[in-house]
Design goal:
By secondary structure, this protein is of the alpha/beta class. Helices cover 42% and strands 22% of the residues. It has ten helices and twelve strands. The protein has a six-stranded parallel sheet with strand order 3-2-1-4-5-6, sandwiched between helices. The longest helix is centred in the C-terminal third of the chain and has 21 residues. The structure holds adenosine-5-diphosphoribose. Adenosine-5-diphosphoribose binds next to helix 1 and helix 4.
Length: 308
């Protein structure tokens, strides 16, 4: 039987995630939104591309969670995006209210699903979904690290004029200005980038990565990034549905790993059919660890505000 992925929020990120998932023929897709007609119209439009793309799957849009029943994965993108000058954290209270509306309905329709949270501020919204759902941590993940590391990989590949396929990059920490791109673990064809890019220039690329979302918001003026965020989401969906055991940075609920307890923070995770199958612990230098703890502290501040 075909797998089923529901996406809550049929806006830019949600609809584009549906597009990537359908184009890779990963699963039937259900788009849900509170806006009447939007999920129905976008789903029907996407469905009509399937004969051209030679993909056999169904795409359905609805305002009703019944359509999402028994999903294997539910991606949550409902929420307002950032506006220029707005930090991800400004979104906190608005998107928390939306999360309170959405997660209970998702869980009632799909009690066995794996949740992937995309709404910002990411780590706090993942923590909210984890608490509201009552699911174990294996089944609630946040999408941020795949996107942040893809941004870092893009800048490294451009800098060195090499294929993006040669570049691996690692980014830890919360999804925000305090994220921790790990240059030591970022490589080009196995060679650490610290041997290929001068420290000052590397610092600039790291800063651009940390401000990657804001750079796009500044261009767009209304709305925020969605092609890369939705592509990153589809990669997580694929790793889970195909039980790939793929290691990628995701926001996960830490229970003592990296010295952090009871908090969603971005760390290397192994994704497979059970969702989060392992948190990979890597040795950090004192400086890297301090940056990670600082990033975790900023996530903690947000979760304290909403009390999750
Ligand atoms: N239930 C269902 N859908 C909702 C709800 C709700 N309670 N509240 C809002 N939505 C829908 C909106 O109607 C809209 O269609 O969520 C959608 C959000 O889409 P966009 O405004 O296009 O925002 P997008 O760019 O997709 O970003 C969504 O993902 O990356 C994050 O920061 C981003 O938090 C934001 C989220």
């Amino acid at each position: 039987m075909r797998k089923k992925v529901s996406i809550i929020g049929a806006g830019n990120v949600g609809a584009t995630a549906a597009h990537w998932i359908a184009s890779k023929e990963l699963a039937d897709v259900v788009l849900v939104d509170i806006a009447e007609g939007i999920p129905q119209g976008k789903a029907l439009d996407l469905l009509q591309a399937m004969p051209i793309e030679k993909r056999d799957l169904h795409v359905l849009g609805s305002n009703d969670y019944d359509a999402t029943a028994n999903s294997d994965i539910v991606v949550i993108t409902a929420g307002i995006p950032r506006k220029p000058g707005m930090s991800r954290d400004d979104l906190l209270n608005t998107n928390y209210k939306i999360m309170q509306d959405v997660v209970g309905k998702v869980v009632a329709a799909s009690p066995d699903a794996i949740l992937i949270v995309v709404s910002n501020p990411l780590d706090a919204m993942a923590q909210a979904a984890y608490k509201i759902s009552g699911f174990n941590r294996e089944r609630v993940l946040g999408m941020a690290g795949v996107l942040d590391s893809a941004r870092f990989r893009t800048f490294i590949a451009e800098e060195l004029n090499v294929s993006v396929e040669n570049v691996t990059a690692f980014v830890l920490g919360g999804h925000g200005d305090t994220m921790v791109p790990l240059a030591r673990y970022s490589t080009v064809a196995g060679i650490p980038i610290t041997e290929l890019i001068a420290p000052d220039r590397l610092k600039q690329l790291i800063e651009r990565t940390a401000n990657g979302g804001a750079e796009i918001v500044k261009h767009l003026k209304t709305g925020s990034a969605y092609y890369a965020p939705s592509s990153a989401t589809a990669e997580m969906v694929e790793a889970i549905l195909k039980d790939k055991k793929k290691i990628m940075p995701c926001a996960a609920f830490l229970q003592g790993e990296y010295g952090i307890d009871g908090l969603y923070v971005g760390v290397p995770c192994k994704l497979g059919e059970r969702g989060l199958e392992q948190i990979i612990q890597i040795k950090l230098t004192d400086e890297e660890n301090a940056a990670l703890q600082k990033s975790a502290a900023s996530v903690k501040e947000l979760v304290n505000v909403i009390g999750v």
